[in-house]
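Exercise (ungraded).
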Amino acid sequence: MNTDDVADEAVRPILRLYLAGDAPGARRALEGRKRIIDAASEPIDIEIIDILERPAEAEIAGILATPTLSDETVTPPRRLIGDISNTTQVLEYFGYGNKDASG
Amino acid sequence: MTIKEDDAVDPVLERVKTGIEAFDDLVMGGLPRGRTTIVGGTPGSGKTVFATQFLAHGIANLHEPGVFVTFEESPHEIEVNMASFGWDIRRWREQKQLVFVDASPQDRDEIVVGDFDLAGLLARILHAVRAARAKRLVLDSLTQLFDHFIADPTTTRRELLRIAAALKKEGLTVLMTAERNSEYGEISRHRIEEFVADNVVILRNALDKERRRRTIEVLKMRGSRHVEGEVPITLVENHGLVAVPLSSLRLEQKSSTKRVTSGNAELDGMTSGGLFRDSVTLVSGATGTGKTLLVTNFLAGGVAAGERALLVGYEESRGQLFRNARGWGVDFEAMEAEGKLKVISLYPEAQSLPDHLLTIRELVEEFKPDRLAVDSLSALERIAPETGFREFLISLTSFIKQHEIAGLCTATNKSLIGGQSASEQHISTLTDSIILLRYIQEGDMMNRGLMVLKMRGSEHDKQIRRFTIDAKGMHLGEPFGGVPDVFGDTAIAGPTA
């Protein structure tokens, strides 16, 4: 990893998507994630955390409900719980532009 | 108080001790293993203490690690708040005998849109359960969880059911707390108990005659027996919650035929040889009739016979009690110096009745007396509501008998001549013997009379005996002539023969 990458990381926002295994809700959330990435006016990385495999991370982040989409780069963390299929609403909540809206 | 049996009793239900001793008795040994119990109570009723004690007892005494899921206070706050009860939560956490799931409110921006589940919470709980190899689990409190997802109680309810089922599958004994809005209203907010709990326990902290009265009540035990009704409970430093047991559970104590001296040879004569070893005697009389003297004789007689004697006084200071004794030729100082006597003077208003009971119990367990005098019950009566006082008396008398101690309690009549005090009404059925001290008018003289009103399991002199008090104590004399009415408002003897 060189210094350029670090700088790049720093400016590139990361959201986290906490979900549980392959429950129907989790599958819908994965579809929603894809649509959000596609629709965002800038590149967003949304990390997937399966809390069934990584419960310790859910403990650290204090996750109660799934799916939860979380921006932990801000203090306090900003979270959206439940249905993330409304792409416009989700992007707006996390303060990102929407390709359709901007173009 | 009755023992209630819910429909089908499962005889093989293993019991999990909560460490709240008398409570475990109420539920026939403890909470059923692998079941879910809801502990409901208003804020400040002791839910978190109950829950923590349940875990602490498992860890400290039974090698049963636990998980504490907290929705309200942070783990650190619990650690600090519970330290005064002597629970070393920090050490248990380090040893992974106690693992927290911290679901306490955090600073975050959060919105809920559409459907969700609580798989995150469940995954964290199960993770903690594995880390601790937990046998016991606490969720404190469910009400907070509902409040967190206030917009969607239906989903929360569904998810809670799912969590409860998963925990049951793990074989965990689960204790959930729930908040109540009032002491005698619905069992819990959101009616949590209706769908999730096998057992329901209620903690109360009600105002009664301007005093706080804490009680615990077992409302429901699925497939199991339990004792019904409210039982006093108190918070004790370095201990946690202590329920004060009612004796209806424990009336099986054996009664002894061994006699001990009352400290007065003439009175021993009247009672066919003295008081029974494990009996409780009530001395009732108006002020100045000689109750404290009888107590002093009782203590001195015991010490002279090589026994250990304990006096718990609620009316007079130690100094006053010692002075009284000296006036009747009894040297309390010497007896105390010998370690044969202990005199404790307590201020009734200083603590609640259950706490007084615990104090007496501690004193007895520490000093191990052969005889115990309580002077007077009436002083305690004024600090308590009537129901509380009756419970106190039942507990005290059964405790005295259990320990095979000879007990002597005094009660003061409000009216100088005759009449009943409330303590008398309460205690008369509970004590084995009753001695009445009365002022009795004879012509233009006011004399003192003593009678043994009742003595369980023994013959006794039924006459009303005249007595005098001088520098050497009490002297019983001849019976009164005629028939003085010692129960009425005026006791007037007939003409002496």
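Further reading is listed at the end of the chapter. For now, observe: The radius of gyration of chain B is 28 Å. Chain B has 16 helices and 25 strands.
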